[in-house]
Amino acid sequence: MTLLVEQCLNGLQFGLLLFLLAAGLTLVFGIMDLVNLAHGSLYMLGAYFAATFAAWTGSFVLGALLALGATLLVGMAVEVVAMRRLYGRDHLDHVLGTFGLILFFDEAVRLLWGPEGLSLPLPPWLNTAVQILPGIYYSSYRLAIIVVTLAVAAFLYVLVMRTRIGMLIRAGASNREMVGALGVNIKLLYTLIFGLGAALAGLAGLMQAPILTVQIGMGENILILAFVITVIGGIGSIRGALVAALFVGFIDTLGRAFFPDLLRMALSTAAASTAAPALSSMLIYLLMAVVLVFKPEGLFSTGNK
Amino acid sequence: MSEPLLRVENLSKRFGGIVAADGLRLAIASGELHAVIGPNGAGKTTLLAQLSGQLRPDSGRIYFDGRDITALPMHRRSALGVARSFQITSLFLDLSVLDNVALAVQARCGHSFRFWRNARAEPELREPACAALERVGLAARRNDLASALSHGEHRQLELAMALAGNPRMLLLDEPMAGLGPEESARMVEMLRALKAELTILLVEHDMEAVFALADRITVMVYGRVIASGNPADIRANQDVRDAYLGEQEVAHG
Amino acid sequence: MTPAWNVRTATVVLLLTALPLVPVYTRLAHDPFLLTLFTRIVIMALAAVSLNLILGYGGMMSFGHAAYLGIGGYAVGMLAHEGIYSGLVQWPLALAASALFALVIGALSLRTRGVYFIMITLAFAQMAYYVVAGIARYGGDDGLTIYKRSQFFSPLDLSNKIQFYYLCLVLLYGVTYLVWRLVNSRFGMVVRGARSNEIRMRALGFPTYRYKLVCFVIAGTLCGLAGALLANHNDFISPATMYWTRSGDLIVMVVLGGMASPLGPWFGALVLLVLEEALSSITEYWQIILGPLLLLIVLFARGGIDGLLRTIGGKRA
User: Fold this and answer.
1) Using CA atoms, how far apart are residues C133 and C141, in angstroms rounded to an integer?
2) Among A94, A134, B120, C269, which residue's beta carbon has the most beta carbons within 10 A?
3) Where are the domains of chain C?
4) Residue C123 is nearest to which of A92, A93, A227, comparing CB atoms?
5) Distance from CA of A57 to the nearest CA of C (A)
6) Which fold has domain B6-81+167-252?
7) Looking at CA atoms only, how far is residue A42 from chain C in angstroms?
8) CB pairs under 8 A between B and C
9) Partner-chain contact B99 C189, CB within 8 Å
């Protein structure tokens, strides 16, 4: 019981974290029609920045804030230097160009921080457990992640649905020329949106940093999950990204936690322990396959993309 | 009256609040050139899309040669002999002119799971394609890339592709659009020659061409047929004058 | 004859004649490493030729092509691990497993297009990666050493590096010819037409989905062959072979060489792998150069090497 509650919360936390990545990805795709494989690199940079700044300043929170700002700036710089030139090109060009960026960022990180990887220790006040139900304790840091990501999701909703910038974002998604004609500086708007997407990825990375090791390539595995989410949720839909991210978060976490046991009940122990890791890592892809069979455009497709 | 080649019954199609077809009825006899006219947004292109199988109607039936084709996908309809040309020119721009037409021929030559023989050396594909290009006057440009042709030539190529499959019925979506006066006149001549051999449904804004070519005319407004008859009837019809023809009628009077 | 024709033809002829001479040179120069490098180039060129079939001619942007390298390789590795060394068993199974995977992935992902297609092929290939990495019996993450290369009838000995090189080369020539016939056949014209304008293809009466699916399966099968060769070449197979960046490498080879050009993937594999060798001898951090280089190629040299060869001399690009 305790384990189940804990794993459910872990699933929620992981799902929300994935949402941050998928939201940035889908925002950039929905508005700029740009496929950004290097999104995972920004996630990785967020984690590296946080570990470094936290060590410099001696404060976890200050380090995190600085890291957030730094990924925002890196994102905007990447947009100005590289992405801007890719708008309106073939998707294959996006894939290749941003693939080049991944190689660059991975190697740059290895050059600057070395190949070993870093760790980001939690401050004592976060490294505790709180009682959430009678007799059930849960990591306060993971709870904090849940709170922060929910706040960001709310912020995104308000930003896109209720503000002038959001209106431009939605208008830009449907009509690039019109927004340009209205006298909005579309170049700046795109730079900002790309920066926002980068900051979201960076935030996900820096929050995940204390849970996992900070290492090269950490962004690549999670990027694939973000793709799966985008496919399931429908490209360009923030709402779809949220729903799909929660699905994937739960299934992946619970699958890894309980699927081997379930399998063991069904099969002989030896066979189960051989097959379980392979099969539980397949679960979310099977989910994606099922969605593809029934709704090839994703659950919340915005239509004609 | 014998069974018409194409019969449309009670066709309805909506996009959200927009009504593109509202209980539409249409009958086109074999051998006839039937023009569909109407103001922008009347649902003419949507009608063609539904006839060719690109769009599914919400309700209603489409019969071709007595057979219910409402549920058939595009490629099955085309196999039955319904060919469509597109309003926005829809070609294979990175292939040669001859390749474009040869593909249209190939579409009617059974399945294409033939993996070894060079398709560009097959007389079975090349000869009818060359003949179709000859008919529309593009034979000299057959080895150029389709992207190198002018707008008028793109229209001719469209027509050649529609002809290449030896269709029984041609659905033409504004073949005159964007053509200069000389090119238009050439297109009218070409259609006049074709109508001897084929049943044609022509959607067109160029009234001069429509009245010069059509055996019968159907007028659509907001997804409905408001009149249908021979050109003289349509010209005389008060509803049509009110709804649509207006000053154009006076001009061509 | 225009000069452009001559430059391109001369390069092609040079390449076609130089490749069979590589073992002669390495024998004379006592440079066995060069033979290893060129064997790798030939195998990767074979994989890239298969990707060119769907990417270059068919416009299907598969980002999961390295999965077949892994599947073909693991078919060889797993069977060898179980004591079955005959290539006549291993290789057909490698091809069949690749074909089956391509059939399932293709059937699902071809229901979508554009960017979905990229993401889905990527995700499924990555699934294959995780599955293989999770199978402890065959080494899991650490991979699987292959102690005996595939065995064929008597004169053919894959452990002989020169024989193996020539086998790979013959297969590369053969597969390239096969793909060339394929793309110029009726089937190939349908696939090209679908890349150019799929809606029109369907309006003409082609059920494009099945043609693209068959094309996808053929390409996957051919890449499975490259996988079987690669496993033999390395005497080792690991999940890293099918990691998604390997798929990225294959795409780079195809685009770098020149999409929809029969020999483009050869140029691409040759240049990318030689460039990797050259850069990594200059600096340990060679990818920091390669990454931005890719971006520049994307931005400024879309025709690839073959396009460049055509353009030299000023013929239309």
Assistant:
1) 5
2) C269
3) 33-255
4) A227
5) 29
6) Rossmann fold (3.40.50)
7) 15
8) 90
9) yes
Distance CA B61, CA B50 (A): 10
Is the CA virtual torsion C184, C189, C191, C194 positive or negative?
Answer: positive
User: Is residue C99 scored above 70 in pLDDT?
Assistant: yes
Backbone φ and ψ of B9, nearest 5°:
-125, 125
Residue among A102, A277, A296 minimizing CB distance to C134: A277
- CB contact burial B74-89 (16+ within 10 A = b; e otherwise): bbebbeebbbbbbbeb
How many Cα atoms within 13 Å fall on the side-chain side of residue A216?
15
Residues of A in contact with C298 (CB under 8 A): 86, 89, 93, 96-97, 100
**List of residues 6+ apart from C31 with CB closer than 8 A:** C25
DSSP-based helix, strand, coil % in chain C, nearest 5: 80, 0, 20
Query: How many contiguous H segments (helices) and E segments (strands) does chain A have?
Result: 11, 2
Q: What DSSP state is assigned to residue B3?
A: P
Contact assignment for B112 to C206 by CB distance below 8 Å: yes
Q: Please give the C-alpha separations between residue C214 and each of A180, A273, C94, C158, C218, in angstroms, as whole numbers.
A: 44, 37, 18, 31, 6
pLDDT in tens, C231-257: 999 999 999 999 988 999 999 999 999
Q: Is the pLDDT of residue B124 over 70?
A: yes
When CB atoms are compared, the residue of B76, B78, B116 closest to C204 is B78
User: How many whole angstroms separate alpha carbon C148 and alpha carbon C76?
Assistant: 10
What is the nearest CA distance from C199 to chain B, expressed in angstroms? 9
- Mean confidence (pLDDT) of chain C: 91
Which ranges in C110-243 belong to alpha helices (H)?
114-133, 161-184, 186-196, 198-204, 208-234
In this complex, the residue of B54, B107, B118 whose CB is nearest that of residue C204 is B107
For all residues of chain A together, what is the average pLDDT? 86
Distance CA C145, CA B222 (A): 71
**Residue C58 CA from chain centroid, whole number:** 15
Do the beta carbons of residue C248 and residue C121 sit within 8 Å? no
DSSP reduced 3-state for B203: strand
Q: What is the pLDDT of residue B60?
A: 92
The arithmetic mean of pLDDT across residues B121-129, rounded, is 92
Which residues, in sequence order, are bridge partners of residue B96? Answer: B145
Spell out which residues of chain C touch residue A293, defining contact as CB-CB under 8 Å: 108, 111
Nearest to C181 among B92, B104, B116 (CB): B116
Q: What is the side-by-side order of every strand in the sheet holding B67-68?
A: B18-28, B6-15, B59-64, B67-68
Helix (H, G, I), strand (E, B) or coil at A61: helix
Q: Which residues of C touch A227 (CB under 8 A)?
A: 119, 122-123
Dihedral of CA B230/B233/B239/B242: which sign?
Answer: positive
Q: pLDDT: is C85 or C284 the higher one?
A: C85
CATH architecture of A2-294: Orthogonal Bundle (1.10)
In A, residues 10-39, which contact C (CB 8 Å cutoff)? 29, 35
The domain spans of chain B are 6-81+167-252
Chains A and C make contact, 3+ CB pairs within 8 Å = yes
β-strands B199-203, B33-37 pairing: parallel
Classify strands B224-229 and C144-145 as parallel, antiparallel or unpaired: unpaired
Where do the domains of chain A lie?
2-294
Tell me whether A81 touches chain C (CB under 8 Å): no
Q: In the block, which residue shows the tokens 């009670």?
A: B10
User: Exposure pattern of A205-228 as b/e (b: 16+ CB <10 Å)?
Assistant: bbbbbbbeebbbbbbbebbbbbbb
CB contacts of B161 in chain C (<8 Å) are 204
* C-alpha closest to that of C55 among C199, C219, C187: C219
